[in-house]
Amino acid sequence: MGRDTDGSQSSSAGGGPPTLSSGRSSTSLSDQHEGTNAPRRESAYRPSSNGYGNNLSQRGQSQLDLLTSTLSTNEQPPYTASERSSISLGGSSYNPQTGPRAPNSVQRQPLEAKNRPRAGGKWLPFKSNSNYGRGRPKTPNGNAAGLRPHWAEWEKISLRISRLPAHTTTRDVWMIFKSHGEVVSVELFERLNGEREGSGRVCFSPPPTNQFWDDIMAVNIQGQQLKIRVELQKEQKIPQIHGPSGKSYPPSMTLKMDAIQFGVLSRENEMMPLKTIHNAIRTGFSLTAELLPKRLEVAFACKIDDPRRENPSIRNPSPIGDMEHVRLYKAHIPFTNLKKIVFIDLDDQNWALLIPLPSPPIFFAKHDSADSHSSSKNTWSVRDAWNRTVDITYDTSWFKDEPVSLPRTNHFIDIGRWTTYRLVFSKSTLPDWGKMKVALMDFNIQVDHTTSKEFLTIPAQMPTLWAQLESHNFNNSKSNNLALLANAEEIQLPYDVRFQLEVCISQGLLNEVNITTEFLQKLANLSKDRTRRRDRAKDLLMYISRPRIGSRTEDREKLDEKRIYDPMSLFEDKKAMSHYPEISIPEHCQWVRKAVVTPTTMYLSGPTPEPSNRVLRQYSNYEDRFLRVQFTDELMKGRIFPAPDDEKDNALFNRVHRTLHNGIRIGGRHFHYLASGNSQFRENGAWFFCPTDFLTCDNIRNWMGNVNHIRIVAKYAARLGQCFSTTRIPRSSPIGQTIKHIQDIEHNGWCFSDGVGKIAPSRAKFLVQNLNMDKTAANIPSAFQFRLGGAKGILVQWPDVPFNEVHLRPSQNKFESISKGLEIIKTSRYSAATLNRQTITILSCLGVPDIVFVDMLKKQVANYERAMEDPQVAMQILSKYIDQNGVTTKIAQMIVDGFMHTKEPFFMTILQVWRAWSMRLLREKARIVVDQGAFVFGCVDETRTLRGHSDKTKPGSRDSTLLPQIFLQVPKGGIKPGEEGEYTVITGICVLGRNPSLHPGDIRVVEAVDVPALRHLRDVVVFPAVGDRDIPSMCSGGDLDGDDYFVIWDPRLLPDDWNYPSMKHDALKPKELDRDVRVADLISFFVRYMKNDTLSTIAQSHLAKCDTLTEGPKHKQCIELAVLHSNAVDYPKTGLEAYLKPSLRAKRFPHFMEKAPNMTYHSYKVLGKLYDLVAKVNFKPQLDGAFDERILRRYALDDAMLKTVRMIKRQHDKAMRQIMNQYDIGTEFEVWSTFVLSRPRVGSEYKMQESMEPVMINHRERFRETCIKVAGSRDTKVLYPIIAATYLVTWEEVQTVLAKTQREGRERELAANEMPFISFPWIFDCELGQIASSKGEFELEEMPKPTIAFVGDDTDADDEEFERLVRAGAIESDNEVTNNGYGPEGQILWSANVAQPTGGVVEEQEVIEEVVELEEDEETSMEALAKLADEE
Q1: HSE of 1089 in the Cβ direction (CA atoms, 13 Å)?
Q2: Around Cβ 856, how many Cβ atoms within 10 Å?
Q3: Which CA distances in Å does 1272 have to 807, 863, 1363, 1400?
Q4: Percent of all residues in the chain with a pLDDT value above 90, rounded to a whole number
Q5: Could you give the CA distance from residue 372 to residue 376 in angstroms, rounded to a whole number?
Q6: How far apart are CA 1291 and CA 1308, in angstroms?
Q7: What is the rounded distance in angstroms from the CA atom of residue 1099 to the CA atom of residue 1078?
Q8: CA distance 158 to 20
């Protein structure tokens, strides 16, 4: 196997057999032909980069490796030249040099090779006198003896070609060979530097009918007559695939198909085909089970008639019938998207398969192979001729100006909505179907059998729904189906009802074919009776679309578990008709509607609570006109992956561009692109807005700020994105606010104060008290990440700042804005420092021994094991390993409160989640917690006391007196939860960095010192304001506007190599326009970013290269990748994409990266060792533990209180399911703890815990406030019985379900939908601990008895209890209230006259609407200010 100059093994992208090159101990083909005895040229070679040329690390490869390498275009093992030119002839082998040899024998070394001259330990070639394949007469079978060559029976053949000019492209090779058979792949070999080597290979499947090739072939390449060498390579048989049962199957099985029908299920046993395509051309129709990628492939061909032939009203300048030609399509259906296939016996001649899908598959359209090549790529495959398609229609350009909507006009096949397929076959295919069926069932695909009498097809009937709801727009549509309009009765539905109806349709809960005029009219009538607080039509539709987890037992055998075939039955459903509105949300949240736009359809979701931002707050009166939009691939695939060098996915990006440009039509409203938040932009999301006569998207953008002076499109978009940051607005200062502008600290062109402002300590405390934070906290945060108009960054406490002043620097001011309110994003806090794969790789290359990381990991794994059994160890570890959301401190407090001793089931499950999450991150990210470390905000030393960096310090110098200094004050270790925290100042040599760190110079060695003037700063790292360069910019290009830094003072992690030169990064100059930025520019940049963002690919290549190359991160390729990564990080700001050259792409990956086996080798470097030490830990919630008797017996609770609390719990559980569905999270325990075990379908896993924190904070606050409102007071005597009731009703549900499973003999094995949610009472985790640990007497002498029969969340809503919740302010009204249900200044309205409970019962009284505050001892703003002044 060839090696790079540093000793690492070279490889190709796919990991197939070793390829031939002049770097191997085999004979050069050109040398052999020319007869030279000179030593062969050394030209390091590696196959090219996209996965078709594969390089195995060893010849004894697994069947899976061999299969993958055979399916792609692969090179043979490195045999000698004599063996390579040996071709089998009908069971024996003939070699031009050595003659025939025995069948099936492999001649490893010709006899004459013993005396062959050698050079440098390698065999030199003999002169070849071979005339094989040249100048001899050929029979039709291609061989002189008239025998059928044995390669004709192979699945495919590979020909190695050499002597190609350097400028040869894959298209050139394809053009040479395409006339001789079905070319399936071409590969041009490349050297280490990415240049083409002059050789390659071409593969045919099936093999050609005759041997057309000669040893030397005369060809024409780009007008140049050349002679190239062509050689047949050895056969690589395709091995069988082993199914889960252990049986073996061929990798693919194909059935020829007679017809395909696209449609929908109209009943459980009835399909309505909406388009039928017959196999008139007798080719191109097939069903293939591909067992290696685990998917079905449905291929078909069709000719689409010009729709103007039937509908002359359609106007288009193109000639009629101009595009009527046969087109080839195929759909990929992953096995994971298949629940069931139904075999239907049609008649004596035919049978059919019914394939119902929950979401559309991936569709492809065949294009001209000649146009599918790229001159810059070294590989081509027949797959490259298949491009993604988002429409099957006559001409997609006809609809390029139409908005995206659920109804689609003039589509030949609506591939996004018609997701039930009926495939028709001849009965002659039944034997092949029998084999395929066995394989599919082995792969857990259920196959049912029925007949055409039992499963019906009904005639197609186009629904009138859209014409009835929107006759005006329908009348103006290009489709203009006059017959449909004539029969349509216009029905008016309010927007919120209409939107929710489209939610149900988009999610497949309802289908247009089942929605009748009667149903729509009844909805309209129901909505007309809407009251001040309720619209029962909307509530009914909300009931249908309520989130579900799992499926009901009775629905599991249905073809579509969630579908409602008879919408009229809903009006007879008491549960649906009594469904009531959502519980109110906190005032800093707002209801947001969402749309997920996929390549072929759109999924809507009803209003869900989200943290607010500046724009939503300003335009809260127009809340229902905002729409959050996410662009993804089909649901089964997830995000749309960037494709910078590929055109196969262009249809996906064109779909995104059309949506942004033309807008989205929902519920009769037309939404237009507004802008994107900065984090939202990275996840391919955007905000849309539906304009009114008085408010447009331009009006909103103009209000957001004056950014017209910015001519860089990316920066323009980023500045608008600032306004969409999730923020909270504290109460305004009672004496006003003054913004004072102070100068930045700059030196040598570097800014030392980039992003840092100042604020008074008293103002900091005032902010905390008015942000609903912990008002009893002993420590006020030292820094606040903020937005203020067009300014951003952090504000740090400094004693010299007056209370009403905010000091801002020029580096913080990005643009001018009308908004002047101070908005807080988050505050500074301490969390434990952690290592990851990047930092471990860098520290290792700087000299930290592997054994250090291994020992730390082993200790951490052992600690997790002990923590599950020993409360003292658990509390110690949880208090020490503090996560960034501080959840571990909550869990530690729960141990103090005795919940581990009682083995309370929720607590024990949360402890298991914490361990599983920690172990998963250890295994997959090498996330090792560092006891002696901190992860904190960075800020600047305003006193200019700390010593700065000096360029005069030589690299490698270990003189601590020359190190730059920092100041860091963090909590002392070992403090138990509940104790007042003491702080300590860290001193000594430390390691400092920022994530991600890819360059060896990104991690700095510094000295931590104690500076008395800085001791008021806690949980932040203070950087020097002097020196030749600021330290943050040396740490992965960081700054101080809210970046987090890790500081480690563990001496074991101190590297040998100090002061490694930081990355030399020439700032890229963004392109400026010569005009103002337009919305069209923002849209184009949005799509360009989606297509060209290579950040993840660069990071993956860097990690793999660091492991593969001997020098690791110090290798020049890794340094180049680190620079590219920095450019990619800045892409959203600069608009300049980072181009990843093929030579920098990783071809092989260490095993710890968990790539495909054929691309993987086993790593024995530090990350490989760490990965091998951590086992996978599975998490499965258990309800076996007994609920805590201390809480259940504490109070005697009456039925009236319990009934109200049960209603709140149902709403809580519904909201929890919404969060789980929205973020693709498996359990409520992961949501509560923010320790998410599943990977997000879209977005970055790296930010998952951080992004979940505000979600959970708002959820907890929402239902805490609801319970407090129901109690009517925060007094513990009144509130604690309500909290105990939340625990009791949860216990009742669990007991009821466990009793049911025991009766059924299932031994507590619960399906996902049967598992009752138990997190509800733990929104009061602290209060539950106080109730449990209270020394007071129990009001109950024994455990209570369950008082209800739990039936899940489908419990009849009680109108009386609903009114009780409304009067308590727990449910806001939708109508007849200003500001969409908000009172003055955005405050929620609730009832003031809720009597104090007597015996835990809330008495009903007359409702008087007024604004009240439940804070019983709330101080006025001036009183608070005076108190703060006294404290200072």
Answers
A1: 28
A2: 20
A3: 42, 45, 15, 11
A4: 55
A5: 12
A6: 15
A7: 33
A8: 13
ω into 206 cis (within 30 of 0): yes
Rounded CA separation 872/1414 (Å):
39
Q: Containing H/E element for 537?
A: helix 536-544
* Phi and psi angles of residue 1200, each rounded to the nearest 5 degrees, phi first: -65, -45
Helix or strand run (H / E) with residue 786: strand 783-788
In 3D, which of 351, 67, 75, 333 has the Cα closest to residue 203? 75
Cβ-based neighbour number of residue 1356 at 10 Å: 11
Both structure tokens of 1319: 């997190």
Euclidean distance between CA atoms 118 and 722, whole angstroms: 69
Per-residue tokens: 1382: 């908000």
Number of helical H runs and strand E runs in the chain = 37, 53
CA distance 926 to 921: 6
Given CA atoms 720, 724, 727, 729 in this order, what sign does their dihedral have? positive
What CA–CA distance (Å, rounded) separates 971 from 980?
A: 10
The position carrying tokens 């998490």 is 1179
Task: Indicate the Cα dihedral angle 1267, 1269, 1273, 1279, nearest 10°.
Answer: -10
d(CA 680, CA 663): 18
| Pick from 1325, 1388, 1267, 1390: nearest CA to 609 | 1388
Nearest Cα neighbor of 104 from 114, 89, 116 is 89
Instruction: DSSP for 237-277, please give it.
Output: PPPPEEPTTS-EE-SEEEEE-SEEEEEEEEETTEEEEEEEE
**Averaged pLDDT, groups of 10, the chain, 1432 residues long:** 38 34 32 35 35 33 34 34 31 35 34 35 34 39 60 90 91 92 91 82 91 89 91 86 89 94 93 92 89 94 88 84 89 92 94 94 92 87 92 87 87 92 95 94 92 92 84 48 54 92 94 92 88 83 80 67 90 86 84 94 92 93 94 90 88 95 95 94 94 95 93 94 91 79 94 95 88 60 94 95 93 92 92 95 96 96 94 92 89 94 94 94 94 95 95 90 95 63 91 95 96 95 96 94 96 95 82 93 95 93 95 94 93 90 89 91 96 90 85 91 91 90 89 89 74 89 91 91 95 86 67 79 94 90 75 51 71 45 31 34 32 36 46 48
Residue appearing with tokens 């200790």: 859
CB atoms within 10 A of CB 383: 14
Q: How far apart are CA 912 and CA 1287, in angstroms?
A: 21
Q: How many CA atoms lie within 13 A of 957 on its CB side?
A: 15
Return the amino acid letter for 1118: C
Give the residue carrying structure tokens 């449609």.
263
pLDDT in tens, 707-740: 999 999 999 999 999 999 999 988 776 767 889 9
- Report CA-CA distances (Å) from 305 to 10, 395, 919: 52, 10, 58
Q: Do strands 1149-1150 and 983-985 pair parallel, antiparallel, or not at all (unpaired)?
A: unpaired
C-alpha 1115 chain-centroid distance? 31
Can the peptide bond before residue 607 be classed as cis, meaning omega within 30 degrees of 0? no
What are φ and ψ of residue 843, in 5° steps? -60, -35
d(CA 1286, CA 199) in angstroms, rounded, equals 73
What's the CA gap between 765 and 794, in Å, rounded?
16
3-class secondary structure, 576 = helix
Residue 853: C-alpha distances to residues 799, 857, 860, 1102 (Å): 42, 6, 11, 20
Sequence-distant (≥ 6) Cβ neighbours of residue 50 within 8 angstroms? 13, 377, 378, 379
Which residue's structure tokens are 């938040």? Answer: 677
Q: Are 1137 and 1094 in contact (CB under 8 A)?
A: yes
**How far apart are the C-alpha atoms of 360 and 1248, rounded to whole Å?**
27
Reading the block at residue 6, the tokens are 């540093």
d(CA 1080, CA 958): 55
